[in-house]
Amino acid sequence: MKKIINTSKAPAPIGPYNQAVLIENTLYISGQIPLNPESGELVEGDIKKETEQSMENLKAILHEAGMTFENVVKSSIFLSDMNQFIHVNEVYGSYFNADTAPARETVEVANLPKFVNVEISMIAFKF
Fold first, then answer.
1. What pTM was computed for the model?
2. Which residues are in coiled coils (predicted)?
């Protein structure tokens, strides 16, 4: 059965989708951008802070589903500029244990929602 996961501790969707969908033990989390859920404002100007906000949004959604970053099995990172990869990777990596980090791809794209610099989506599994 499909269960919709939403929390006020992450930004509300800006389109016809939900923050996450749980099917049995698998959680599919929609891409998170650096939008502060409390203020509704974008975090801008520093790719590390932007990545941190995106990761904190993901963390809140995982928590709402009763999971942590240890449950994440796959991540997708979308960047507006691959030259920022090293900075994004540094922040992203701080949320995971290197020995159990998930599979991942990172791609550069022409544009992202609200013209942000980073968007991250994840798939997690409740073991």
1. 0.97
2. none
